[in-house]
Amino acid sequence: MAAATATLACSSSGIAVANSRVTRMQLQESSGVSVVKTPFVSKTPGLKSTSRRGLVAVHSAGLGATLPEGYEVKDRVVVDESHAGDAASGNVIDKLKAGFKNFKESNFTQNPELFEPLKSGQAPEVMIIACADSRVCPTMLHGLKPGEAFIVRSVANLVPAYDPSMENVHHGTSAAVQYAVTALGVKKVIVMGHSSCGGIKALMTMDDFGSDFVGSWVKIGLPAKETTLSQMGDKPLAEQCTFCEQEAVNVSLRNLLSFPFVEERVQKGEVELYGMHYDFHDGKLTSWKAAPSMATVNA
Ligand SMILES: [Zn+2]
C-alpha cells in the first residue's frame, strides 16, 4: 500500500483541473471555474473579478464550486495529441500526462474496434479485488484490456462482511461488489493477495485496531491472523505473513458469501469465487477456487 502518488479513477466520470496560465490552445475546454477569495486576476473564460484584490464568489458553469474555501481549481489542461508538456521534467504529473498522450496516439486512436463498443457500456466477465499496493497491477499481470475486468483495489484486498447499516457508513468495497454482481452480472469474482503486503503485516503486528483507519480496516482479517498464529505461531514473522496473506484472501471470500446476492448466485452456479496470491519476489501466481462442497450442493 505504499505509493508516492494516489490516483482516483472512475469509469463513469472524470476529474480535471483548469489553469488560467495555460495557453488558449491548451484550454480546449473552457468550462469555467468557480473561485473564492483568490488574489489573482484570471483571463480564463467564465471568470469575473469583483475587486482589485481578487475574485470573490465567482461562479460559472464549471468545476470548482465544491472545493473548500481557500482552494481553487488550477492547471486544468486537456491532454491529447497536441499536449506539449515536458515529460522529462521529473514531475510525476508530467510523466502521467505524457503517458496518456502516448496511450492516445499509439493505442486509443489505433484500436477503434476495442474502444468504440465501450462507449455504450461495459460487460466485464470478472471482478478482481486486489491490494492498492503499487507493485500489484492486475491489468498488467493478467494482460487485461479495457472492459474486461471490474477492478477494486483496497488496503490488503480485504472485503468486509455484509453489513446493511447505511447511516454514516460508507461501504466502498461493498458498493463495488453489489454493482459488479447485480448490475454488471460478472461471472467470476477474484480476491488477489500478494507478497510483502503492508496491510497484512500491519494486521499481524498491530495490537490496537481501533485507533486509526488502517487498523480499523485491516482488522477485517483478524480470523486469518488467528488461524495463522494457531498454525504458524512458532515461525518467523515473514513466514506468518506469507501464510496470512493467503488466509486473509479466504476471509474475504467468506465475507463475499455473507452478501445474500453473492451467496445465492454462487449456490446456483451463476457466480464463481476465486482466490489468488501473487508473489512478486519469485514471479509466481497461485490460484484457487472457493466452491460449495458436495455436501452443500446435495443438501
Ligand atoms: Zn498489500
Automatic annotation (TrEMBL):
Molecular function as annotated in GO: carbonate dehydratase activity; zinc ion binding
EC assignment: 4.2.1.1
Catalytic activity: hydrogencarbonate + H(+) = CO2 + H2O
InterPro entries assigned: Beta_CA_cladeB, Carbonic_anhydrase, Carbonic_anhydrase_CS, Carbonic_anhydrase_sf
Residues holding Zn(2+): 131, 133, 194, 197
GO biological process terms held by the UniProt record: carbon utilization
SMART domains xref list: Pro_CA
Keywords: Lyase, Metal-binding, Zinc
Pfam families: Pro_CA
Cofactor note (record): Binds 1 zinc ion per subunit.
Lineage: superkingdom: Eukaryota
Signal peptide coordinates: none
Cofactor(s) essential for the protein: Zn(2+)
Protein family according to the UniProt entry: Belongs to the beta-class carbonic anhydrase family.
Function: Reversible hydration of carbon dioxide.
Name under which the protein is recorded: Carbonic anhydrase
Species per Swiss-Prot/TrEMBL record: Ceratodon purpureus (Fire moss)
